[in-house]
Design a protein that fits this description.
This protein is mainly α. The chain has 14 helices and no strands. It has three domains: 31 residues; 138 residues, no CATH class; 113 residues, Cytochrome c-like domain (Cytochrome Bc1 Complex, Chain D, domain 2), CATH 1.10.760. The relative contact order is 0.11.
Length: 287
C-alpha cells in the first residue's frame, strides 16, 4: 500500500472515531436530560405563571395582602389546604376561575346579606346618612391581591400538572395509613429537604448526572432504583453496587455536590421498613 492509500485509511479511521465520539457524547447529553414528572412540570409552570410571586417560593409563604382574613396570601403548605379546598375539582376551579363555585356563591350571598343589613340600619337611623357604625370588612374582590383566573391561559395538561404540584406541596394526597407512617418517618429524617415535599420534587444538584436530586417516582427514579434491594442499599449505604461498578456513573456520583447520606446504624429496622413502604407506594401510585 502506498503512502497516499495509508493516509486515506488513517483519515477515514480518524473521521469514524470522531463521529463515534460525537455520537457517544450526544447520547450522554441526551441521557442527562431530566425526565420530568407531573409535579416537576407543574413547578416549572408555576414559576412561569408567577404563582410564587404571591404564594412564596414553592408556595411556602405568601406575601402581605392587607384587609384579607389572615393579612397575607395563603401559602400552600402547613395544612392550609383544608381551609380552602374540599376536593381535587376545587383545586382546578381555583386555578381556572380564581375561586371555586362554592366559595364564589358564599361570598356573593355574604355581600348581599351585609348590604341588606346596612340598609336596614340606615332605614332605622336615617340621620346617620352614609356614616358606618362599624368598619366594614373588605369584600374578596376588593382586596389588593386577588387570585387570577387561568382558564384562557393554560390547557388541560398544564392544569393537571399544576394540580399535581399543588397537592405535593400541600400534602393533599390521600394515602393508606402504612404509607402515611413512612411519610412521617421520611419527613422526620429530613429526606424531603433534598427530595422535595413528599419526595415528589427534588432540588438542584450541580455536577450530578441529571443535574438534580430526583423525586421518588418517575423515569429518573426507576433508572436509579431497579428493585427493592437497591432501594434498601440506597437508604442504608447511600449508593448501590450497580452504579459504583459503572465507570461513567461512578464519575458523576463522586463529583456531584449533594450526595445521598447513609443511614446504616442510624435508623431502626422498623423505620427503614416504613420508609421503604412509603416509597414503594409512591412509585406505584404515580406509575
Amino acid at each position: 500500500m502506498n503512502i497516499s492509500g495509508r493516509a486515506r485509511i488513517s483519515a477515514l479511521m480518524l473521521a469514524a472515531l470522531t463521529l463515534g465520539g460525537l455520537a457517544a457524547w450526544g447520547f450522554i447529553n441526551y441521557a442527562r436530560e431530566p425526565e420530568l414528572t407531573a409535579e416537576l412540570r407543574g413547578y416549572a409552570l408555576a414559576e412561569e405563571l408567577g404563582c410564587h410571586g404571591c404564594h412564596g417560593p414553592r408556595g411556602t409563604g405568601g406575601v402581605a395582602n392587607p384587609g384579607s382574613r389572615d393579612g397575607d396570601v395563603p401559602a400552600w403548605d402547613g395544612g392550609t389546604a383544608m381551609m380552602f379546598v374540599r376536593n381535587d375539582d376545587e383545586i382546578r376551579e381555583w386555578i381556572m376561575d380564581g375561586k371555586p363555585w362554592r366559595l364564589a356563591l358564599r361570598d356573593s350571598l355574604d355581600a348581599r346579606r351585609r348590604a341588606n343589613r346596612e340598609q336596614r340600619i340606615r332605614d332605622a337611623f336615617p340621620k346617620a346618612g352614609e356614616v358606618s357604625l362599624h368598619p366594614r370588612p373588605l369584600e374578596p374582590a376588593e382586596l389588593p391581591l386577588t387570585m387570577p383566573a387561568y382558564r384562557d391561559v393554560i390547557d388541560e395538561h398544564q392544569l393537571e400538572d399544576l394540580v399535581a404540584y399543588y397537592k405535593a406541596v400541600a400534602d393533599y394526597t390521600e394515602m393508606p395509613e402504612d404509607a402515611r407512617r413512612g411519610y412521617r418517618a421520611a419527613r422526620s429524617l429530613g429526606c424531603f429537604g433534598c427530595h422535595g415535599p413528599g419526595g415528589l420534587l427534588g432540588v438542584d444538584n450541580p455536577r450530578s448526572f441529571k443535574g438534580y436530586v430526583p423525586p421518588w417516582r418517575g423515569p429518573d427514579y426507576q433508572e436509579l432504583v431497579k428493585n427493592h434491594d437497591e432501594l434498601r442499599a440506597w437508604i442504608l449505604d447511600g449508593n448501590i453496587p450497580r452504579l459504583n461498578d459503572n465507570r461513567i456513573a461512578r464519575f458523576f456520583m463522586r463529583r456531584q455536590v449533594v450526595r445521598m447520606p447513609a443511614y446504616r446504624g442510624v435508623i431502626a429496622d422498623s423505620t427503614l421498613a416504613e420508609i421503604e413502604g412509603y416509597i414503594d407506594w409512591l412509585s406505584r401510585d404515580g406509575s
